Amino acid sequence: MASTNSSDAPLAFLRLVWIDVSGVRRCRCVPMHTSPKRGADSFAVVASNATPRAKRLWVHHRSSLALCCYFLPCYGDEGVVETAWERGDIVLAPASGAMSVIQLPGSCDWLAATAIISPSGPSTQLPHPWCPRALLASAVKRLHDVFGMKIDVGFETEFVLLDAKTREPLESSVYCQTSGFDIAAEVLRDITSSLGRAGQTVLHVHGESAPGQFEIVTDHSDDVVAQADAFVARKEVIQRVARKHGLLASFLPKIWSTQAGNASHVHFSLKRARNGVPFLRRRNRDAEEGQLVHDVLSPQLADFIAGILANIGGLLLHTVGSPNSWRRVQPGCWAGAYACWGVQNKEALLRVVDARENHVEFKAFDGTANPYLGLAGLVCAGMAGLARRGGVDGVDGKGALPPPVSIDPQHSKNVPRLPTASFEELVKASLGNHVDEKFARSADEGFMEHQWLESMRSYCEDAEGEFQAFFEDFARVKLAEVERFKAMAFEEEVELLLDRY
User: Which of 23-32, 106-115, 120-129 comes out lowest in average pLDDT?
Assistant: First the structure.
């Protein structure tokens, strides 16, 4: 998130926003001052365009929080964890080294990208082992250091605008219909300008298929952590502006059973770490079959995609992890309900948009995901594919990736469905029949869990123990959500979750 400020900004709160394992955005607010006691626990909020004479606003930047508050189910503040409950507090603080602060539109409150650090002392800035932002930063660094790659990422952000009182959609047009945009033009202009003031570049805005549904596409970059920060800030800004207009903006994946759902598709591309040049495709001939293999993709991208497909069961709960998410990822909905890839195939989980730029769209990501955990999982799954096939050098690209699918995969007998027939199936696919299966996978470099564990080692002394403790509590939260929503009617589910996301 880019900084934005005014030298005469009023005294206000700084919102330290964290995303829990259920993808719910939560915040602690600390007051800002112009002249506080400047010690180890003070943080100066300064705009990137501030003049030398501009006032600095200061905050007491550490806010203690019970670790169990990071492990709350989406249906309510109910204690279901064990390990986190016993381990006391963590500390919330503005992200170290990043002046990632924005002023919320029409508000005296400011928002900061938030790190979770260990409460070891007044000046300690070591990330907590379970900090999702630290995990993502470490996974991206591992991709760079071990595999010699950078990854560019960007989000599509879909949402529905509803009347805040009646919960009726703002308009009822079809995809990109001009009259629908006209009805929403005022609030969309306000959203776009507010995002611009927050340092986010909006590439385009358009109406989507469901009533009151719109999509905002922002720019891509290889600063993956900053992209996750911006994703969080973007949702805060959109909802804030919508409220000013008497509207509710919801990112819930499936609001109406017969209408399109809200996604947050991730676009990514791979390039060489040393020079930023995209990997080029290389024609490889299979000696036995005499056919060109991976004619479209570079070997590196082929292996990265193969890792995602091979680990999709373990990955999905981090990218489409709410009890409502599975309802969107169904056949015939352009939601990527099948574990396959294809060139410009909108029904494939992974759509190759531009092979020359190694540009791929991953469809199984929505606005209920913790974006740090979701992107970290995606990178770790890709690294698992690279590790299994050999990384950057010496890769022939043969055999690791199934052929592309050029038709609607629901009409093919050879393409497996994603485990999204129910939320319970999704949870069990991620955790295995028992969470011990997830721990066992961490011993094999070809699994996402191994790359996750190795990423934790860079900032955590007891990575194995912390990895296991995290997923034990993560499993308890998700299994509790399964039980709560198992017998709940769809309409009741939407009513409960519409304001959560």
Answer: 120-129
How far apart CA 31 and CA 63 sit, in angstroms, is 11
Contact 244, 106 (CB under 8 A): yes
As a residue count, the chain comes to 501
CA distance linking residue 95 with residue 101, whole number of Å: 10
C-alpha distances in angstroms, 60 versus 9, 38, 45, 92?
Answer: 18, 9, 11, 11
- Report d(CA 120, CA 122) in Å as an integer: 7
**pTM > 0.85:** yes
Alpha-carbon gap, residue 14 to 93, rounded angstroms: 10
Cα four-point dihedral sign 40, 45, 48, 54: negative
Alpha carbon distance 58, 80 (integer Å): 37
Helix H or strand E segment including 480: helix 463-485
Helix or strand (DSSP H, E) at 163: strand 149-163
Torsion over CA of 49, 52, 54 and 55, rounded to 10 degrees? 120
Residue by residue, DSSP assigns 169-195 as: BS----TT-HHHHHHHHHHHHHHHHHH
Q: What is the pLDDT of residues 130-186, one digit of tens each?
A: 999 999 999 999 999 999 999 999 999 999 999 999 999 999 998 889 998 999 999
Angle at 264 between CA 258 and CA 268, to 5 degrees: 135
